[in-house]
Structures are given as C-alpha cells and as structure tokens.
UniProtKB/TrEMBL annotation, chain A:
Pfam families: Spore_permease (PF03845). InterPro entries: Spore_GerAB. GO terms for biological process: spore germination. GO terms for cellular component: membrane. NCBIfam families: 2A0309 (TIGR00912). Keywords: Germination, Membrane, Transmembrane, Transmembrane helix, Transport. It is a multi-pass membrane protein. It is found in: Membrane. Belongs to the amino acid-polyamine-organocation (APC) superfamily. Spore germination protein (SGP) (TC 2.A.3.9) family. PANTHER family: SPORE GERMINATION PROTEIN A2. The keyword Transmembrane helix applies. Its main location: membrane. It comes from Oceanobacillus profundus. This is Spore gernimation protein.
Length: 371, 500
C-alpha cells in the first residue's frame, strides 16, 4: 500500500464540493434530537455549549488539515502505514473501517426510528432498510463522483425545509433564554459533549483529501462547512428552546421535527410528514459517504474489491436491521457510535498530530545528515 | 454467397458485350429490373445498362444517349469522359463497385474490349417536399421540418449555416443494407474528443441494418438500460443548426426525418428554440414552467395517492371534506383508482396517435368527456382525482422533446405504485432513485445533469433560464469547446448615467 494516493485526473474534484460533502455528513438525523440532549445538560445556556463545541470542532479540523499537509497526497490509511508500520497501521485502519460500519448502522437505524415514530408506526425495519440500502448500493456503484453529486444536489434541494421554520421562529418566547450564564462550566462542557454525535462526519476529510484538485481552497471550504452546520445546529437548538417550555422540551426526543407541525397552508398541513420524507434526502448522502468510506478503506487496506465489500456489507446491514426493532436497542447503537466516534474523531487527531510532526522532523534530520 | 463475393471482387474486364449481358443477367436473376441495351456505333459495340426507376429517364436520354449515339467519332472510355462532362463520370473495374452503383442510380456504359465501365450518376430519389413540423410544433420561428431525403436535409442545414467551417463527414452504416450517415459539426468549435467518440461509435457499429436515426440513437447511446433518452432527436432543422452553432454534434441519416444531437443534457430536452425567439424575460418563465410541469407530472398523482391512502392528516380539514365526499362512493383503493385513470389517459393518447387526425379528435372528446363523466357518475372514480390526472397528463406534454415527454409519463406508474405502498416515503425513495440515476448518466461521456453537477455557474443562464443577449457572451463551458467566447464583452452595451 502506498502512502500517497495517485488519483486519475478525471477523478479529481474541486474543493468547492468539500463544503457539501462535510455538511451532508454532519447534518443528518442527529440535528433532530440534539436540542433535548444539550438542553438537559446546559439548560438555557445551551448556545454557549454549542459554540464551545463548534470551536472545538474547528480546532480538530485544523489539526486534521495540519496532519494532511505533512504529506504530498496521503489519506488516513497511508498516514497510518507511515506512522505505525505495516501491522499496527492495519489495526488502526481497521478501527476506522469499523467506525464507518457502526456510523452507517446508527444513521440507518435512526432514520428508520424517526419514520416509525412520525409516519408509519408499524412499518417493518426490513422494508425501510431495504429501501435505504438499495439506494446506497445504487449510489455507491456510481463511484465517488456520483456520491459527491448526490451530496451536492440533495444538499441544495433539501434546504427548502428551512423556510418552514420561519413560522415557529416568529412564535418564540424570549423569556426562555433568560437568565443568561446560569449553567456551571462543567454542565456547559457536558452540553458540548452531547453534540458530538451531531457534529460527527467531518472525518471524511481524511479520506477524500487526496481527491481534491485545488488543495489551497481546502481549508476555507471545510471551515465554511463546519461553520454552516454549527449555525444550523445552533439555530435549531435556539428555536426549540424558545418555542418549547423546559419540561416540554425534555419530553420530546425529536423536538425539531415537532416544530414543523405548526406550519400550515390552505392545501397542506402537518409538514412533519413531508419533512420526515424529505429527510431521506438528508440521510442518503451520509449513508452513501459512510458506505463509500467503508468500501474504499477496505480496498486501500486489504485490497478487497469495492463491489464485493459493498454487497457483503449491504446484506449484513440488511440482516442486522431485524435485530434492533426496539427503541432502546436503537438508542444503544447510537450511544455506542457516539462513544466510539468521540474518541476516534475528537481525540485521536491530537494523538496523531505530534507523531506525524515528530516523524517528519526525524526524516528531515536523517535526510540532512546523509547529504 | 461467399463464392459469389469472391468472384465479383475479381477484375473481369475486358470481355465481350454478350458475356457482360450474361453476367449481369445472372447477378440480377431474381429481379428482372435491369435494362440492358446494346448499340452499335462506328463498328464498336456499346452496352448501356441501368435500373430504369432509379434514374431520371429524360436526363439519361438528353445528356447521355443522344450525344453518345449522334457523334461521328469513335468512342473509347477516355473519349466518353472527356466529351460528356457531367461531374459524376467515373470508371469502375470491379463487380462489387458496379452492382451497388446500379442500385444507387448510376448509368453504366461499356464499350467492348475496354478495361473498365464508365458510369454517370442520374439518381432519381422520390421524396416529399419540405413541410411544417408535426411533432415539435412551434409558435414563432422557422417551421420547416426535415424530410426523408438526406440531400434535402443537408441542403437545409448548409443554407442555415453558411460557412466552409461546417464539417460534414460521410459514414456508411449497416452491413446487409448500408445507409449513409453524416456527422455534422463546426470544425473551429466542436470538441475534438467528442467528435472522435461519436465517429468511433458510428464506425464501430457492427449491425446489419439501422432503420432510423432514432434506432441509431439506441445503438450508440451511453446507457441503453435507462428510461431517459441520451441524445436529442429533433425534426427541426432550425434546432439542429442552433445546436451545431453551439458546438454540439449532429448526425443525419438517409431516409430519416430526424436529426440526432449530441452531447445532450437533461435540461436541454426542456429547451425549445422558441425560448430564444421570445425575449429573455418572457422566455425564462416559459422554460421554468416546463421544469415545473415535469416535476408536477411525476409527483402530483403519487402525492394524492399517498395523502389519501396514508397521510390524510396533511390535507387541511376543509379540503379533506370535499375529497372525502368525492371519494365516498368509490369502492377501490386510491392506487387502483389512479392507475386506472392513468391507463385511460395513456389509451386515449395512444389511440389518438394511431388514428387519423379528424377521428382522433372525436375519440378525444368521447374518451375524455363522455367516459370521464360517466366514470364519475358510476362511482368508479372521484372528480378530484380526474382533475389531478388531467393536470399531470397535460404537464407531461409540455416537454418540447416527445421522447422525454414519454419517459416522464411512464415514470408516473412506478411512482404511483410506490406511493400506494409506502406513501410519502415511497415517493421520496422514487425521487432519490431518480436523481441518483440522473447523476450516474452520461451523454457521449459527458455528465447528463450538467451544468448542475458538475456545477458551472456561467452555464446556468443558458441551461435553466435566460438572461439578455449581452450577458450571454460565453458558450457552454461544460462542453469544453475550442472557442467558448461568443462575442467580446466590450461590445455589449455600456452603462450610462441618467439622461439629465
């Protein structure tokens, strides 16, 4: 396995799309439930928590970019190979692959759960799983260009649902935000920790970085993406806190979805149904990228054909949907994904960064000594 | 067969006139159409042979036979070619050149003991005259349509694009029954890779015959499994030359009244030349209406089915009451009701397309008005659904390309079934599948959904809407043409201050 990836010229993508890649990975079903999670820790000071979390995400992102900059055109698997050697590197990469699998599974189950709660209480997991997984297979078979296209087109198309939030936004009670600065520092951090599942997804940068043509635009594009998703999460949380009273909010698992119920037109009511359907457009790009990450990583690390991984993983996930029918089971998967992702996405780059810098310095010294 | 081919590729000349007659008779043994006449002139035997209905008899008489027989001098091949200076004079030596030549309306002259046959082209091809477009009718702008004659069509195109820059390449397609195909593009504009791809696809086509350019399209398109057409076929010369001038490639085929335009994008199928002739601020909304109606046509009936079957909560109470009253007597689930009505509309359309125009109109009235009213009164369908079905059928007919309109109309059926099974989730699944499919498609190797993905902001003003002409100083960037500037931006109007 080479450390640096050679990309065919027709597979290169513009950094412009990185914005949509990262936003579509970050904004998924997580945003629907995040207000309650943050609120139960930080109460009306949730906005501080989210700002703290966003700042932390940006720091992690900058660290990731710094790591990637040390190489010509490497992805995370190449870096693992370079830093940890053949076998240890493979183990770390395998953990990454496992992360993609678990994240895929948690997104899949969460969307099925939302559909069950809001639209079809009796729909079987298998049918919904079949729909989503067949979309995933069909999309991933198109390759990275198509997946990025999906994230871009769906990312633009799904934005109309934001306009439906204008109506609830006009009915906010500003007293819900007061008094300011009440939460102790620990609670604020706990609140920030609660957003970790929602903000996950920017780690895809570690994989798509070699594909990007204009590397000088990567930083601005990814920073804008993270800022935009942070803004969305922040406004969703603020809306939910302003609209619902404290005990209402704590009892509503998907508070943001409930907000859509208030909007109505002479010909359509109950927009939550439509929004849940529209959410498929938000969820599918995440699923596609996670599945692509899984198959591409398998190809990079173990030289398995992507098609083989795709079909096998799809069948396993489809069978897997049978075993997590209940709410608490789904919740367990999400919690596990969150735990796993937290250490892997938010902490691990800071372990990798000094190692990469050290290795580079050693190499430089060696090069200087030999010449 | 193989034996005969071998023999005819051999040079049989020189030979006696009687031997030639025997040979020709044996070649044409199953079709007694060959006219083989022998003359004696200045002690030399001359044979003239041709297929009478493939040539223009009076021209043959006046231009060829009269000078041939009335002359006093002795004829030889060179003498004939010199004395009868029609530009199509040629010498042939091989049988497999002579036989297709006879079929293509050539008159052959053989002088005994010469080494070759002299031929002149007198092709008489029956054709209809240029008429107005039938399937792609336009309100303003040129109205003539292509005919079945390639020469006429080329004439029209040449007259539209009067520049030597226009390349018209000749390619022959089909093994058993060959047809001429022309590849037309602007040398200084069209992308070389695209032209090469197209030429290669046409040259490598290994089929025994191709019926029409619509069939040709199916042979050479990128993804034959897709429901969407990947090349545009049009019967408007106007539209074809517009596409050529934009840097695209056109393919014309003998005996086919439609041209093929490549590469095409999804959005170009909703583009009518009328948009250009209208002013930009009335052309853009018209195009927008077409996009809207495409969406409506795919989604409206499925939405109704989904709402009435599963999610009646999304219908406001006032509306729900009227829908409920209208549906009260209907014994079928909404899916069947919708499928039944959609099928009826398709029947009407199909019957209307097959029948003569006058009868077709009657059928439309009988089918639409009488059966529709009767179906509602009999309690089989609801009024409101009929309204939705009619709107979506109308919407599907707004697509300027008939092929695209048909694809969209057919897409409704799986969407209705999906809506009937899984409601809004099913519709969304269908839409997602559709968009992913469109993203995967290519036309001549170029993305089908361009310029949306990959996004080219400069192209949006031509593909999705139109701006005034002085904003359109660039050609489509996504086509990567040799010259993408239409005119200098400086020539566009300068800004002025208020006039005092």
């Amino acid at each position: 396995m080479e450390i640096n990836v050679k990309i065919k010229p027709n597979m290169r993508i513009q950094a412009f799309y990185l914005f949509f890649i990262i936003v579509s990975m970050q904004i998924g079903v997580g945003i629907l439930g995040v207000p309650r999670l943050v609120f139960s820790e930080a109460k009306q000071d949730s906005w501080i928590s989210i700002l703290v979390a966003a700042a932390y995400v940006i720091i992690v992102l900058l660290a990731m970019l710094l790591i990637l900059k040390q190489y010509d055109n490497a992805d995370i698997h190449g870096i693992h190979r370079d830093i940890f050697g053949k076998w240890l590197g493979k183990i770390f990469s395998t953990v990454y692959i496992l992360y993609f699998a678990i994240a895929f599974y948690s997104v899949l189950l969460t969307y099925i759960e939302v559909v069950k709660v809001f639209v079809f209480p009796d729909v079987s997991n298998f049918v919904m799983g079949l729909l989503l997984i067949s979309l995933t297979i069909y999309g991933v078979l198109g390759g990275l260009r198509v997946i990025i296209g999906v994230s871009f087109v769906f990312g633009v198309l799904a934005n109309w649902i934001l306009f439906l939030l204008i109506h609830p936004a006009l009915q906010i009670d500003f007293n819900h935000y007061l008094p300011l600065f009440q939460a102790p520092f620990v609670d604020l951090l706990k609140g920030a920790r609660a957003t970790s599942y929602t903000f996950m997804g920017f780690e895809i940068l570690f994989l798509v970085y070699p594909f990007i043509q204009n590397k000088n635009k990567v930083r601005i594009s990814s920073l804008l993406a993270v800022t935009w998703s942070s803004l969305l999460v922040l406004s969703a949380t603020m809306l939910a806190i302003g609209f619902f009273s404290a005990e209402q909010l704590e009892r509503r698992e998907w508070a943001v979805l409930v907000l859509f119920k208030t909007q109505s037109f002479p010909f359509v009511e109950r927009f939550d149904y439509i929004v849940v359907a529209e959410l498929m457009m938000v969820v599918v790009p995440s699923l596609l990228f996670l599945m692509w990450g899984l198959t591409y990583s398998m190809k990079r690390v173990y030289k398995v054909k992507q098609k083989l991984t795709l079909y096998v993983a799809a069948i396993i996930f489809l069978i897997g949907t049978f075993f997590f029918e209940k709410h608490f089971e789904t919740q367990r998967v999400i919690n596990f994904a969150e735990q796993f992702g937290f250490w892997f996405i938010y902490v691990y780059p800071f372990v990798l960064l000094p190692l990469v810098l050290l290795k580079k310095r050693l190499k430089k010294r060696k090069g200087a000594g030999s010449s | 067969m193989r034996k005969r081919m071998k023999r005819s590729s051999k040079n049989v000349f020189p030979l006696k006139i009687d031997e030639l007659e025997q040979l020709m008779k044996s070649e044409f043994d199953k079709s007694p159409d060959l006219s083989f006449s022998k003359y004696e002139h200045q002690n030399k035997k001359i044979a003239v042979f041709f297929i009478p209905y493939q040539v223009q008899p009076d021209r043959v008489e006046n231009l060829l036979l009269t000078p041939l027989l009335e002359s006093k001098e002795e004829w030889s091949n060179t003498a004939i070619l010199n004395k009868i200076p029609l530009n199509s004079g040629k010498e042939y030596q091989q049988m497999d050149e002579i036989l297709p030549g006879l079929i293509a309306g050539k008159v052959m002259i053989y002088i005994e003991d010469e080494a070759a046959v002299v031929s002149y082209d007198f092709l008489n091809k029956e054709k209809r005259s240029l008429e107005g477009a039938e399937t792609e009718s336009v309100v303003i702008g040129p109205k003539i349509a292509f005919t079945e004659s390639l020469v006429t069509n080329l004439n029209v195109i040449r007259w539209n694009i009067r520049t030597p820059d226009l390349a018209i390449e000749e390619i022959t397609i089909g093994k058993r029954a060959p047809r001429e195909v022309r590849l037309i593009y602007l040398k200084s504009l069209a992308n070389d890779t695209d032209v090469d791809t197209m030429r290669q696809r046409l040259n490598e086509l290994d089929v025994d015959n191709v019926e029409d350019s619509n069939v040709l399209m199916q042979y050479i398109e990128d993804d034959s499994a897709s429901i969407f057409p990947q090349f545009h076929t049009t019967e408007l010369p106007d539209r074809t030359s517009y596409a050529i001038l934009k840097g695209k490639i056109a393919v014309l085929m003998e005996n086919s009244p439609s041209a093929l335009i490549a590469p095409s994008t999804f959005f170009s199928f909703f583009e009518s030349t009328e948009d250009l002739y209208m002013r930009w601020n009335s052309g853009s909304p018209l195009r927008f209406i077409r996009f809207m109606s495409m969406f409506i046509s795919v989604v409206l009936t499925p939405m109704y089915v989904a709402a009435v079957t599963f999610h009646y909560e999304i219908i406001p109470t006032q509306l729900l009451i009227s829908i409920g009253q209208s549906r009260a007597g209907v014994p079928f689930p909404p899916v069947f009701e919708a499928l039944f009505l959609e099928l009826m509309i398709e029947l009407l359309r199909e019957a209307g397309a097959r029948l003569p125009t006058k009868v077709g109109q009657t059928i439309g009235i009988v089918g639409g008005v009488v059966v529709g009213t009767a179906a509602v009164q009999a309690g089989i369908t609801s009024n409101i659904l009929i309204i939705f079905i009619t709107i979506s059928a109308l919407a599907s007919f707004t697509a300027p390309s008939y092929q695209m309109g048909t694809s969209i109309r057919l897409l409704r059926f799986p969407m209705i079934v999906l809506a009937g099974i899984l409601g809004l989730i099913g519709i969304m699944f269908g839409l997602c599948m559709l968009i992913i499919h469109l993203l995967k498609m290519t036309s001549l190797g170029r993305p089908y959904l361009s310029p949306i993905y990959p996004i080219r902001f400069e192209d949006l003003n031509k593909a999705l809407y139109r701006l005034p002409q002085n904003f359109q100083y660039k050609r489509f960037i996504s086509l990567s043409l040799k010259d993408s500037i239409r005119f200098s931006k400086r020539n566009a109007k300068e800004k002025k201050d208020i006039d005092e």
